[in-house]
Design a protein that fits this description.
The complex is a heterodimer of chains A (189) and B (578). With 189 residues, chain A is mostly helical. Chain A has seven helices and no strands. Chain A folds into two domains: 69 residues; 114 residues, Up-down Bundle (Four Helix Bundle (Hemerythrin (Met), subunit A)). Chain A is 83% helix and 0% strand. The longest helix of chain A has 35 residues. A three-stranded antiparallel beta sheet of chain B has the order 1-2-3. The relative contact order of chain B is 0.20. Classes of the chains: A mainly alpha (189), B mainly alpha (578).
């Protein structure tokens, strides 16, 4: 953690804690506010400044990372680029695996394959949401996260239909899910 | 096993069997839990019971039930049941405060029906934000999804669920038996373990909830629940000792009385304020993504038709909201002493407050499984008494609408989370809850009406001095007295709300809501929950995320269901014995 961020957190946590302590005093009889109100205002302002400072530091750090990612040149940002590439790769692999699974009719085998898909792709995709948020504008990331959630729910329905032994629903859902995974890749292009 | 070739091509989801079973279970659970709440002072969610019975009836008896069909049954049953929770919190207080023949039953009923519809309608547009983008955990929703799926899904998860169930059930029975009673160390009335070691003062001594349900809710939340734990530490290890050492606590108080004062007069009101401030600022800061989520919802409803529809059309939501708002307005206008402008203003403000309070309760439930309904009802009654010149009846009308609505909002989100996890269509769940939850208002009103008139002389069938003491109503009556005598800690609400707003600016999702909730709840709950969070984080670190999802989730689900069902069974047994 850089020193500025450390101080910003100290300011925020200290300000909030002191504000809550000063708010805890009861007003004296006949008064509306506690005597500590001026202290409360001061330390709450400290907390607010700390919070805004953290936001500003985080936002400039993300901006730097986004610029560097676009350039794809700087080593210290390589992990983010790799993460994004990794997500694209996961999407491609998931699409391929889903296409192969379409041909399987055995419920038990499909169930085992679904568990592998979940462990190998879906949990990683869910875990990499922060990387997606950092690399896209808020509205765009919201759109992609909505699409990812739609795909996740469709996958959950696929698993449920397979557990229920409803082959017709399973076959109906596969093309829809594959199409959605294609759409995810389009958004990331 | 049936021949696969004979299976129908339509995957059963919104079926007559699921709807009828949901209605039947919802009505029965509503009546039973209203009675239990009058007796014991708390109500219980019925999702887990409904899903287990749904599995037995739809799959084992009818032989053709599906996972998503059971989700519809459970959505309807819990929707009808949860309206009872809101009604039983407020309506008994109206009976106790009013003269026998002067209760305007119809306007209260209309306000309640408006609340049931509005609670569902106001929260539906936030489904994408809370479930898909924020990915709130909703521990009970996850547990119910595990039950719905575990039956037919496989032996291993069923075993884990069963083990969790047995552990929690046995532990709960052990607590109820009284064998563990150790004065000074284990308090069985509140199911808490006290660690004062004979030296620590009560206002700072750690207390651990012995509820495995609480621990399991923390296990399902993991790292996301940590601010709740830290909020508890801040409240009890920093604010609490600070108030004592600064001499802000009346000198005549000591021991438990001192702790009760700190909790009741300082931490709880500040916590309610923080919750409200944090929810307000979250709506403002998340406006772009909420807007995007609502656009996505509108787009989804435009491009999809008929059986493929994913979401309830926005037009239906708007028409429903206007209709419910009119219900609310006419209920208020028909109250003696309320002018037209007051009825209009109270209906509008009441609806706005319903939306915000619904969001607070849905988020709190999503993050921790705890819903601060009583705190929200307290704010409602305070606000409305001030706005309506102390007209108690009109204020109670809004409060009953709000209490029902926020219960519905939390329940709808919980059920939509379960639906998300089993792949149900949100559209059918939304239709199911919207079309049936109002029935719960009628059932709860009728139950309370009958019970009240079953008393000696045709009245006072519940309340102090009867076999149904209605503790929640007594607590609300005390709050009303405090409002009437102007002893409500308004300054704590306001100062807490400003802290909530600042917390909302922090780049940690849900920090304000979790922090406020941690101050609002006893220390034992936050500590037990925090241990659950730390356990999940330790397991993820040692064994990985996949292991936690496949092993910990069914085990935690079993712990939640085991304690809940044993608690219900014990309550019914206690009633039968009396």
């Amino acid at each position: 953690m850089n020193i500025q961020l450390f101080f910003a957190w100290v300011l925020f946590i200290g300000g909030i804690s002191l504000a809550l302590i000063s708010a805890a005093q009861m007003p004296v009889s006949g008064a509306t506010w506690p005597d500590t109100l001026p202290v409360y205002i001061l330390v709450l302002t400290m907390g607010l400044l700390g919070s805004l400072w953290i936001r500003q530091l985080n936002s400039s750090s993300q901006q730097t990372q986004t610029n560097l990612s676009t350039a794809s040149e700087i080593d210290n940002n390589a992990d983010k680029v790799v993460s994004l590439q990794h997500i694209r790769h996961l999407f491609q692999q998931l699409q391929q695996d889903l296409i192969h699974l379409q041909a399987i009719n055995d419920r038990q085998i499909l169930q085992a394959e679904f568990e592998k898909l979940e462990a190998n792709y879906l949990l990683h995709i869910i875990a990499s949401r922060t990387v997606l948020k950092n690399h896209l504008a808020q509205a765009q990331s919201a759109l992609l996260l909505n699409q990812l959630a739609q795909g996740e729910r469709l996958f959950n329905r696929l698993v449920s239909a397979n557990i229920d032994g409803h082959a017709a629903e399973v076959q109906r859902l596969f093309p829809q899910l594959i199409e959605l995974v294609k759409q995810w890749q389009e958004v990331l292009k | 096993m049936r021949d696969k070739t004979k299976r129908p091509t339509i995957y059963r989801e919104f079926t007559l069997a699921a709807v009828l079973l949901g209605l039947l279970q919802g009505v029965l659970l509503n009546v039973a839990f209203v009675y239990i709440a009058l007796k014991l002072g708390f109500s219980i969610g019925g999702s887990s019971i409904a899903s287990i019975l749904g599995y037995v009836f739809l799959r084992l008896v009818l032989g053709k039930g599906t996972i998503v069909e059971n989700n519809i049954n459970q959505t309807i049953a819990s929707g009808i049941n949860s309206t009872g929770t809101g009604v039983v919190f407020v309506l008994p207080a109206v009976f106790l405060l009013s003269q026998q023949n002067s209760i305007p039953f119809l306007p209260l009923l209309i306000a309640g029906l408006g609340g049931a519809v509005l609670g569902v309608i106001l929260i539906i547009p936030l489904r994408k934000q809370l479930i898909e983008q924020d990915r709130l955990r909703f521990p009970t929703g996850v547990a119910v999804a595990a039950i719905i799926r575990t039956g037919p899904a496989g032996l291993h998860k069923a075993k884990l669920l069963g083990i969790g169930f047995l552990i929690a059930s046995s532990w709960k029975l052990l607590l109820l038996s009284g064998w563990l009673s150790m004065p000074g160390l284990i308090d069985l009335e509140f199911e808490e373990l006290h660690f004062d070691f004979g030296v620590l003062p009560a206002y700072v001594a750690p207390m651990l909830s012995l509820s495995l349900l609480n621990f399991a809710a923390g296990m399902l939340s993991g790292r996301a629940g940590l601010p709740f734990f830290i909020g508890g530490l801040l409240a009890w290890w920093i604010i609490s000792p600070a108030t004592v050492s600064l001499g802000w606590i009346p000198a005549e108080l000591s021991g438990v009385a001192q702790t009760d004062y700190i909790y009741g007069e300082i931490l709880r009101p500040l916590g309610i304020g923080v919750l409200i401030g944090a929810a307000l600022i979250e709506v403002v800061l998340n406006y772009p993504s909420i807007k995007q989520a609502i656009h996505a919802l509108a787009a989804a409803t435009q491009h999809q038709t008929g059986l493929d529809r994913e979401e309830l059309p926005v037009g239906v939501l708007i028409i429903g909201a206007i209709a419910a708002l009119l219900f609310f307005f006419f209920a208020l206008w028909s109250t003696p002493g309320i002018a037209l402008w007051q009825a209009l203003l109270a209906a509008l403000l009441g609806t706005l407050w319903m939306g915000l309070a619904g969001l607070i309760v849905a988020e709190a439930t999503g993050l921790t499984d705890v819903s601060p309904i009583s705190g929200m009802a307290l704010i409602s009654i305070t606000m409305m008494m001030l706005l309506l010149n102390g007209n108690l009846l009109a204020a109670m009308m809004v409060t009953i609408g709000v209490a029902i609505a926020i219960g519905q909002s939390a329940d709808m989100m919980q059920d939509l989370k379960t639906g998300f996890m089993v792949g149900s269509r949100p559209f059918w769940q939304q239709v199911a809850q919207l079309a049936t939850s109002w029935i719960g208002v009628l059932v709860a009103f009728a139950t309370l009406y009958v019970l009240w008139h079953s008393g000696a002389g045709g009245a006072h069938g519940f309340g102090e001095g009867t076999s149904l003491p209605a503790p929640q109503a007594s607590a609300l009556t005390e709050v009303i007295n405090a409002v009437q005598t102007h002893s409500i800690p308004t300054e704590k609400f306001i100062l807490g709300a400003l802290v909530g707003i600042v917390l909302g600016f922090a780049p940690i999702a849900g920090l304000g809501i979790l922090g406020g909730l941690a101050m609002y709840l006893p220390f034992s709950i936050t500590l037990g929950y925090g241990l659950g969070c730390l356990t999940q984080m330790w397991v993820v670190r040692r064994k990985g995320l996949a292991f936690a999802e496949h092993q910990l989730v069914p085990l935690a689900a079993g712990l939640i269901i085991g304690e809940a069902l044993t608690g219900v069974g014990a309550a019914i047994y206690a009633l039968a014995m009396t």
